Amino acid sequence: MYRYIRFFLFLFNPELAHHISMKGLKLACFFGFIRNKNTHSKPITIMGLKFPNRVGLAAGLDKNAEYITPLSRLGFGFIEVGTVTPRSQPGNIKPRSFRLIKNEGIINRFGFNNVGIDQFIKNLKKAKFKGVLGINIGKNYDTPIDKAVEDYLTCFRKAYPYAGYIAINVSSPNTKNLRNLQSDKNLEILLKALKNEQKTLHKKFKKIVPFVVKVSPDNSIKQLDSIAKLLLKYKVDGVIATNTTIDRKRILSSKYAKEEGGLSGAPLNKKSTNVIKHLNKRLKGKITIIGVGGIITADDGIEKIKNGASLIQIYTGLIFKGHGLVNDLCKATR
Fold this sequence. Notes:
Elements: H1 2-9, H2 14-30, E1 44-46, E2 49-51, E3 55-57, H3 68-72, E4 78-84, E5 97-100, E6 105-108, H4 117-124, E7 132-137, H5 148-159, E8 165-169, H6 184-205, E9 211-215, H7 221-233, E10 238-241, E11 262-265, H8 269-283, E12 288-292, H9 298-306, E13 311-314, H10 316-321, H11 324-333
Parallel strand pairs: 3-4, 3-13, 4-7, 7-8, 8-9, 9-10, 10-12, 12-13
Antiparallel strand pairs: 1-2, 5-6, 6-11
Helix pairs in contact: 5-6, 6-7, 7-8, 9-11
């Protein structure tokens, strides 16, 4: 069935197709055409949270927390929404998304387009989801790097009461200089501030909300080692490996190879898995790894888990393969 849906959606540009598919999913849910999908998986407790299964939706598909309820019907054990910033912003100029059909990949340069944290919270309050909800936060495009910590703290405080976990996005290639936050000095300042805030909010709300850091697949081994040391030093709850890549080695024949932005999907798979494998060696099981990047088949998901991921997420794979991939992954990783 999804083959026919995909054929229709792929007639449109990727951003328009996304809006059509999300509105269609919402309508199908409203009229009862989509029921809660039974993925036949065993629950697993990670970071103190009970996940119905290991398979989640990566951030970016539901930037404004508008489609949590219909997306939950697809069988995800957890859904990550965002990236959200303190203030609303339109993102980068269109066109900003490109579909690489032969490569089963997507290049995007959205640039954290979102409604802002206050409207975002209003949206997610309307959602009904029994799984774990992740909230992915970032900084506004015009906030200087040396002022970025306050942006993250603003979103962290406002998201805390509603989140299962909070993801710290310091690795998108689509916001100027954002990846500089992965440097030793900047990352340490940020992690220290967030860890202190987590302790304060723990006392205030009488619950601990884990936070995880999303890293780039383009980091060198030396950079990954430095990041791992800081994650251990500040006892961060988890790491998401990885974000999209600016590497174009696997798509040189594509007409979109020179387009700026982050590449996701099949071309990212091996690179993401290598990062997971390296971080797993350095973290030695002390910090949860969430694997994401190029999961197009059930075997891809298994490979991520074999190399150290406790949980996995999909995005581009959902677009190319449909919701059947969620069920396949759940069966393979239960």
